[in-house]
Amino acid sequence: MKPVHLRSATSADAETIHALVRTSEVNDREPQVASIDEIHEIFDDPHLDPKEDMRLACVDGRAVGWGYVWHHPSGERLERAYLFGTVHPDWRGRGIGRTIFAWQLERARAALATYRDLPRFIKTAAWDWLTDAQHLYERFGFQAVRWFDELLRPLDPPLEITGVAGVDVTAWRTDQAEEVRLLHNRAFADHWGSGSIDPDAWTNRLAGYGTRLDLSVIALAGEEVVGYSINEVYPEDEELLGRRDGWIGTLGVDRNHRGSGIASALIAASLEHFRRAGLTHASIGVDADSPTGAHRLYRRLGFEMEKRSVTHQLEL
Predict the structure, then answer these.
(1) Which residue has the higher pLDDT, 116 or 233?
(2) Could you tell me the pLDDT band of residue 233, with boundaries at 50, 70 and 90?
(3) Sorting pLDDT into bands at 50, 70 and 90, what band is 232?
(4) Fewest beta carbons less than 10 Å away: which of 17, 100, 253, 302?
(5) Are 90 and 36 in contact (CB under 8 A)?
(6) What is the C-alpha separation between 23 and 249, in angstroms, rounded?
(7) Which residues have C-beta within 8 Å of that of residue 262, sequence separation ≥ 6?
(8) Which CATH number fits domain 5-141: 3.40.50.2300, 3.40.50.720, 3.40.630.30, 2.60.120.10?
(9) pLDDT band at residue 25, thresholds of 50, 70 and 90?
């Protein structure tokens, strides 16, 4: 086989990367359609330097694979770096994936090297049916440690949820975005693998592709933010899936208010927003071992299991 050359990527490579991603999604039966805007968004990430954190794998100048390392510094609790990428289906089985992954692992170690006072993890994620990818991770010493489910619910019949005394669920309020960020960091402090989000990463999250703040909601006890649901829509998926999904993208409740019905009220309000926007279904992702009992709650609200991904991890 001809030698594989890894080179850094720039935003000028976005179309090439998008073609690689879409070809892999179709081949691997992934239930999603990446948009070119999502690829451009990767280059706009405030914590990603394409020169250092991204590589294209080329053979005779042709891009046949790519990979990048995603690390948003937390500064507390833990630090984690995620590895993402793919190889064109026609070029698999030739060691290209191993070459990319070896570079990613080296880069992730370097990115986490300055955080020796915190637990440090390198992570990957793949749909549970993509066993070849999982075998690659395990070959490099990663272990399957967590499973994440994606659940689906038709918007009809609507949820009939009784309001929570002293709490109002309202439309998203931009002037309280920073309060929501601080609540998010507190609410997810006991979630597996979760790190704090800094203001730059939060701004990027709220402006991210698919994010629909007009369909998002917050819960207020007086003027205090005690819960939120940041919701999303991905129109490119609609033809593939045969439905119009609204995503409960990030849902959080103040730890002192858990068990009071706020999460149910946020979900009910979100589903009503989805219905008014002409969507047909609601989707939500959940850690199969969530300590909050979220999986049981979503089932009670009518969500049903649709698909599952597995996270592999290497601890430094």
Answers:
(1) 233
(2) very high
(3) very high
(4) 302
(5) no
(6) 25
(7) 164, 167, 169, 219, 226, 227, 253, 254
(8) 3.40.630.30
(9) very high
Asked whether the domain spanning 151-309 has the same topology as the one spanning 5-141, the reply is yes
In angstroms, the Cα distances linking 60 to 33, 54, 57, 186, 205 are 28, 19, 10, 50, 37
The domain segmentation of the chain, as residue ranges, is 5-141, 151-309
For tokens 């939500």, the residue is 284
Percent of the chain at pLDDT exceeding 90: 75
Q: Does domain 151-309 have CATH number 3.40.630.30?
A: yes
Euclidean distance between CA atoms 230 and 252, whole angstroms: 9
Task: Tell me the three state secondary structure of residue 144.
Answer: strand
The mean pLDDT value for 128-151 works out to: 95
**112 near 120, Cβ under 8 Å?**
yes
Q: At residue 275, what are phi and psi to the nearest 5 degrees?
A: -60, -45
